[in-house]
Each structure stands twice: as structure tokens, then as C-alpha cells.
Please model this.
Amino acid sequence: MARQPEGPPPPPVVQRLRVRYAKTGTLKFTSHRDFARAFERALRRAGVPMAYSAGFSPHPKISYAGAAPTGVASMAEYLEIGLARRSDPAEIKARLDAALPGGLDIVDVVEATDAKAALAERLEASLWRVRLAGVSPTDAQAAADRLLACSSAIVSRATKDGHRDIDARAAIVALTCEDAEPGGGPGDPPGSPALTGEGGICATMHMVVQHRTPAVRPDDVVAALRAHAGLSTPAPPQVTRLAQGQLPPQGAAGRPAREVELSDPLAADIAAARG
Model:
């Protein structure tokens, strides 16, 4: 028989809270593991009554959903926490936001109205903004059109187990390009200037990418634009996740990526809280 820790079992989960947070500025360079450590410290500093797992090494009940890659800013990251004592979500939001460093910001905290419906199931696709310094919007849109015309676009991604081939085209729902924004946009530190490259040009691409296995990331799409559409990118792309959610029932065919409205994964919980 396996040994059991001495003492009573930890209190059960009595409330689940869903959290939307942003990762911006220099904090976008924190890895998911770094964020997890910072968030657990913030939970302790904020005095959040967390529920813990049983066993010899108890862990706080936290469920992360599809974290953005290291080096990518995001306005729409999600996680869920289990509490051992019921608490006011607004109070938890304020205390957590005060306990986290600037650049890791709590946007919403809501009570899960249907704990059996996994939060990850509501995250079907992401809207990404990709800035390409030194690339003209005309060249970027032409490359986007060529990529969308491809039936597949295989790119190779380096992993810890070697290189893996991924079909980037299969996950693209929409891909369009605009001129560079006149100033800093979502995910940029306050007062950020517009991003420009050689000759003062910059293309801003928006892409809706479906969540698949294996995951297709924005850098995979940029790699496909280079390899399959002939786009030259003289500088590394700057990427921000603007939204996550479910795709619209009517689809996104022929619509600019920025106009594809992903459903808010917390909408049902927010509506229930408002009665």
C-alpha cells in the first residue's frame, strides 16, 4: 500500500475563478515557467485562499490554458484557480494585480459558472498582430495572398527532440496586412513609438490562427511567408496576441483578420455574474 501523508487532507475546492491577464513590455520575455513562479508568489502575497493538491508536495490548484510563447506579448492569456474559501472576484483581482510586477496585469477575474466546461475548450483560435519592420504593406499583402493560395505550407520548427515539420497553412483562418500603426498599440509599453525599419516602412499583419495539434505559432506563419511566398523580413517580427476565443459560427471566409470576432471565453461567466 502506498504511503499517505500524515494529517488531514487539504480543504476541497469550493470556488473556481477564471483569470484573464496581459503580458506586455519587457515581461513578454518571461517564460511560462517564470510566469508560473511569479504568479504563485503573487497568490501568497495577496493572501488568496488557494486550494491545494494532496500528497507529499502539495501544489496550488492552478490550470493554465495555452500560454503564449516566450518573447510574445499578449493581451489575452487565461488561467483558472481553485479556492478553498469563497471570495469576491473583484477583490481577488485588485489584490493580485497589486502583487504582480508591471507588465503582468490582471484584466478580469470572474467566477466559473460551469466548472465542468473546461476553459481551454473555449479557446479555439487566436488573433495575432505581427509587425514586420522594413517590409512594405504592399509586399506583405502580396505574400499573404500567395500563402493563402497554397494548399499547404510545410515549415520546420526546431524542438528539443530535433526538427519537426508543421503545416502552417492548415491553421490559418484569416491573414491580412495594413500600414504600420501611427504609435504604440496594444501590448506595447505606454509611449512606444511606431515600429519602422529601413526606409521608415513597416507592415502590420493580423492573422487568425486556429489552435491545432501540433500548435501553429505566428513565427511558423512568418516562416511560411518566407519559404512559400517569397517574403523578405530583414528584422525579427514583433508579435502580440490580441484575443483568444471561439470562431464565429458563420466562419471567416473573405473577411479581414481584424474583423473576425472571436467569442470572449469569459462572456458567459461575466453575464452570469451580472445577473
Notes: Confidence is low (pLDDT under 50) at residues 189-193. Helices lie at 32-46, 89-99, 137-148, 218-229, 267-274.
